[in-house]
């Protein structure tokens, strides 16, 4: 039986150290971590690796349930997948495990709370952006593409596929920029 820890934060500027230290203190021999949103499973390679290597009797540990995800269905599916492999899931704060039947009920409720919290965060973010736009303080997000370079490359005769290849973006993004011009 192995204790496998999973730590996650949503953004690159957040710190994983506290979660990793707590998981080590709980006896996790293997800890996988990543900096990616918990809104869905997309781009969560470390979580996929953990699930793939769970064996019967193993225990997947997270510091809080929202580290597994913020979508109730996703969280319940992750727990189900772990159990299909004969493993248990343990959340440290509050301490809940799928070893007992009551743990499933508590984890379902916690999953719903995490999803509701994500909706509140998105709503507050949307309201903040609207207020900032109203006061003229919001100019939008940081532009990820060099629009002048796209236009210059197109003027020099490069096609959308070639521009996209050089800049590491999709052809649709190139077309959108050229349409704006």
UniProtKB/TrEMBL annotation:
UniProt GO BP: DNA integration
CDD domains: SR_ResInv
Assigned protein family: Belongs to the site-specific recombinase resolvase family.
Annotated active site: 10
Gene3D superfamilies recorded: Homeodomain-like, Resolvase, N-terminal catalytic domain
Residues spanning the signal sequence: none
UniProt xrefs under InterPro entries: Recombinase_CS, Resolv_N, Resolvase-like_N_sf, Resolvase_HTH_dom, SSR_resolvase
Species whose genome carries this gene: Methylobacterium bullatum
Annotated ranges, domain Resolvase/invertase-type recombinase catalytic: 2-136
SUPFAM superfamilies, per database record: Resolvase-like (SSF53041)
Keywords: DNA integration, DNA recombination, DNA-binding
SMART domains on file: Resolvase
GO MF annotation list: DNA binding; DNA strand exchange activity
Listed name of the protein: Transposon gamma-delta resolvase
């Amino acid at each position: 039986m192995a204790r496998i820890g999973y730590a996650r934060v949503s953004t690159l500027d957040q710190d994983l150290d506290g979660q990793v230290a707590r998981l080590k203190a709980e006896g996790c021999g293997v800890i996988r971590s990543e900096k990616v949103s918990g809104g869905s499973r997309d781009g969560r390679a470390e979580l996929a690796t953990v699930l793939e290597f769970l064996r019967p009797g193993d225990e997947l540990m997270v510091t809080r349930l929202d580290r597994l995800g913020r979508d109730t269905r996703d969280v319940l599916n992750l727990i189900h997948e772990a159990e299909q492999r004969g493993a248990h899931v343990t959340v440290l704060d509050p301490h809940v495990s799928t070893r007992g039947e009551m743990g499933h009920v508590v984890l379902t409720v916690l999953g719903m709370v995490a999803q509701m919290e994500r909706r509140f965060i998105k709503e507050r973010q949307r309201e903040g952006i609207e207020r900032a736009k109203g006061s003229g303080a919001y100019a939008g997000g940081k532009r990820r593409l060099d629009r002048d370079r796209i236009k210059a490359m197109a003027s020099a005769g490069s096609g959308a596929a070639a521009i996209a290849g050089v800049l590491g973006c999709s052809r649709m993004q190139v077309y959108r920029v050229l349409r704006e011009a």
